[in-house]
Structure formats: structure tokens, C-alpha cells
Amino acid sequence: MTLLATLDHADADLTACLARVMAAMLKPGDVVALQGPVGAGKTHFARALIRARQGEAAEDVPSPTFTLVQTYDDPLGTEIWHADLYRLTHPDELVELGLEDAMRDSILLIEWPEHGGRLPDPLTLGFEPIGDFPDLRRITLAGTEIRWGAMARLPAIAQLLHRAGWADARLLPLAGDASSRRYFRLIEGARSAVLMDAAPGTTDSYVAMTQWLRHRGLHAPAILAANQTEGLLLLEDLGDDLVARVLESDPALAPRIYDRMTDLLVELHGHAPPGDILRLDGPELARQVGLFAEYYPAAAGAPGKGLQVAGAIEALHAQLAEDMPPVLGLRDFHAENLVWRGDEPMGLLDFQDAVVVHPAYDLVSGLQDARRDVAPEIEAAQIARYIAATGVDADRFRAAYALLGAQRNLRIMGIFTRLAEREGKRRYLAFMPRVWDAIQRDLAHPALAPLAAALEGVPAPSAQVIARIAQE
Fold first, then answer.
1. What's the pLDDT tens digit per position in 169-196?
2. Might you report a single GO cellular component term (predicted)?
3. Where does the pLDDT of residue 60 fall: very low under 50, low under 70, confident under 90, or very high at 90 and above?
4. Domain 243-471: CATH superfamily, name plus number
């Protein structure tokens, strides 16, 4: 067992806040052992955790000192067992109490665990009163690194929420993005916020880009509190109306929504980009598209094909795109990362990897979406809308749009293949036919003939090809 983290000088509110944070992390089969003397705060912690899991259906949570065990229904679908083993006379009594069976598919909170013998890989919380401060305690978290290592983040999260005035909030996990970041919604009465839990020291780019966007009137979520050393940000909650969900529930809104997306890019591109971020010029675009040749052709049964793709893209970029001043590109500008707010400005998400790039790049990202079909007439209308609003050369912009669309989509084919082969994430393979169709439309532009030639012999992602990649 390894010491994972320590929370010092925890009063009753901070102790309960730690419990609420942990409540969002626990899953069926987890055993939490609560150790410490009488009055150290074990039951207070367990009570806060159980009530956080239950949310609006929260019950009274009495101490199980005399009943030994209390069970609670969890609206999230997991039963919670709260046990006090102080009066247990022999470890064999665990079987009689039903705790051994409960350890398979319930969440167990066990006070005085040392009276019950050896527990299977628990997370152990130690509660130690602090000398002359009877209302304060030191809380230690210990367990095996492989199972419980992520819990080392909890004290820092609890301290941030406590300091920011969100100690009483309930945390609910939110769907994450393709990175290792985790997101939680905080709910307290009528107010809510979002917690971003990223790797320590990795939020600087997000904070800098948030400030850049907000100073220019673009609606990135406001930062309510932060611990950038630990990689923790408390953010404004923009709600659940992602453009992707709105389009699915009300497809008739698509023309209006895509008009707003294009207008947002026009506004964004009216500002000179920051000078301290990655520039996606021809050589960098060529380097990134190398993922395609590295992974997809061989996985599709055509090893050695597509090796000239990167060189063709670099040469075409020099011919078709380098004459236009670059702009800020949010890089993942699509329906999953935009929040529909009616007549209010669209909310922006996932922009920390912004780049300096040709103006067509983000337009391609929004209109050639790997996850959903965009009607051809909408794509054509938005390209025309952008050209009309900015006054760029129409023919050169359309050629650059086709080139950047092909580059972006070829790279995506490589990424999806790599995710399947190296990480077992096969769900993205279902998007491949749509991405390939977009590539073929882009290659139809006469200016991209050299790129089309570089792709000769590379098979389309047929059902057989996708099955082959999935099996590998």
C-alpha cells in the first residue's frame, strides 16, 4: 500500500468536500476503509459521500455503530454499504453481514476496518486529529498505485472547490474528449460550474487562449478559479446544448447554425493571431499527415502505398495557400465543441491546441465533420458565405479549402487506424467511410491532381478493410 496524498488542516466543510469529490469517482466494487479514532470525522465523511451519491434523493445517514451495516440505494445504479466494524468480534462475521458478497458489485465504506481482517485492495483513508486544533484533522489517502493512483488528485480538487466557494456542490462526471482530461459538472442549488481535471502543469495554453478569446468578445468559458500547478480549472458552465445535439434533435436548424458557425470564423479571423503558438505551414501539415502513410495503407492491406502524400501536400500548400495571411485556427472547430445558446454568441470548447493556419482550415473542420453528414448544399453555401464576407480570391480559396480538407481527413484516417491498433479504440472506424468520401470530394478539385496520384493504390475503407483493421 502506497501513500497517495495528504490533506492537512481539514475542517468539517473541507472533509465533506473531499467526500463529495470522491463520490464522483467511485464505482461498483470499490472498498473504502476509514481509519481513525472516535470523533475523527469518519462518519461525517461517509455521510457526505452517501448523500452526494444520492443527490436529490438523499436520505438521513445515521451512524451504523449499532446496526453494523446500513445500505443505501444510489440513483446512479450502485448500492452503497456503510459498515462500522468496531463491535465485530471475529473477521468471519463479515460473511454473515453480507459484506463479502457486496464487495463484488457495491460501493463499501467501512469504518474500523482493522476489526474485519484483510480487505481486498481497499482505498484507505486515515483521519488524524491535529494536536491543539480539535476541529481540524489530517486525512491521508493510501492504496495500490495501479488501482487508486488517480485518487491522489482528490485533495487538490477539494481544496480548490473549498477555496472557490463550491465546497457544498455535488459533482457529476461529464463525457470527456479524446485527451486524458476529465470533466465534472458541479451542482449547488440553481448554480452550476464545470471542473476540468488535466495533468499537472498542462493548463497554461488553455488559460492563455481563454483570455485571448474573451478579450476579443468570443465566448470561451470564464475561468472561475484555478490551480494551474495541479492542472485544475473551475469553469463557467455553458450547458448541454452542444451543436451536435441540437442538430440531431432539430435538423431544420442546420442552415441557421452553420451560418452562425461561419460568421463566428469570420469574426475570429478578423483578429491578428497570437505569435507564440504552433504554425501549421506546409512542412508542418506534411509532417502531421505522415500518420496516414504510417498506419492506414498497411492496415488496409496495401503496405508501401501513400508514401508520397506528405511531399505532395507540402508542394501544393506552397502553390495554393502560402499567399494568404494565416489566422488563428481553433483546430477542432466542429459541432462537438460548440455550444448553441440561441441568439447569444456560440460557446467555444476545446481550443487549447489552437494554431496559426490558413483561413480555410477551421471551415473545413466544421463542414467536413467525421462524426456527421453535412448536406452538400450547406457546405457549398458556407464556403460562399465566407468568401463573400472576407473578400478573398474565390478560386484560390476553394483550391486551398480542398487541399486542407484532404490533408485533415487523411490525417484523421491515420489517427483512427492508430487508435484501433494501439489503444483498442475501434469505435472510430465506423467514421472512416464518411471521412474517405470527403477526401474523394476534395481530390476532385483539378488543382489536387498530384495528391490524387500519390494516393493511387490505397484502398477505400470498405467493410472488409475496416474488419481487417479491427482484427489487428
1. 999 998 755 557 899 999 999 999 999 9
2. cytoplasm
3. confident
4. Aminoglycoside phosphotransferase (APH), C-terminal lobe (3.90.1200.10)
Tell me the backbone φ, ψ of residue 419, rounded to 5 degrees.
-60, -40
Q: How far apart are CA 274 and CA 367, in angstroms?
A: 25
What are the residue ranges of CATH 3.30.200.20 in the chain?
172-236
DSSP 8-state assignment for residue 58? P
Q: For residue 272, what is the DSSP state?
A: P
Q: Can you give the length of the chain in residues?
A: 472
CA distance 454 to 448: 10
Cβ contact 227:201 at 8 Å: no
What element of type H or E holds 86?
none
Give the span between the Cα atoms of 174 and 27, in whole angstroms: 15
Q: Where are the alpha helices (DSSP H) in 87-170?
A: 93-97, 99-105, 145-148, 154-163
Query: What is the dihedral angle through the alpha carbons of 268, 272, 274, 280, rounded to the nearest 10 degrees?
Result: 80
pLDDT in tens, 381-400: 999 999 999 999 999 999 99
State the Cα–Cα distance between residues 416 and 418, nearest whole angstrom.
Answer: 5
Fold of 2-165: Rossmann fold (3.40.50)
Q: Which residues contact 403 (CB under 8 A, 6 or more apart)?
A: 313, 316, 317, 320, 321, 442, 445, 447, 448, 451
pLDDT for 61 = 78
State which fold the 172-236 domain adopts. Phosphorylase Kinase; domain 1 (3.30.200)
DSSP 172-184: EEE---SSS-EEE
The model's pLDDT over 401-410, given as tens digits with 9 standing for 90+, comes to 999 999 999 9
Q: Where in the chain is the domain with CATH 3.40.50.300?
A: 2-165
Q: Are 331 and 356 in contact (CB under 8 A)?
A: no
Mean of pLDDT values over 240-252: 96
CB atoms within 10 A of CB 151: 21
**Cα gap 136→307, rounded to integer Å:** 64
Q: How would you label 95-134 residue by residue, b for 16+ Cβ within 10 Å and e otherwise?
A: eebebeebbeebbbbbbbbebbeebeebbbbbbbbeeeee
Q: Cα(472)–Cα(461) distance, rounded to whole angstroms? A: 15
Please identify which residue in the block is written with the cell numbers 436548424: 253
Task: Write out the residue limits of the CATH 3.90.1200.10 domain(s) in the chain.
Answer: 243-471
350-365 exposure pattern, b = at least 16 Cβ within 10 A, e = fewer: bbbebbbbbbbbbbbb
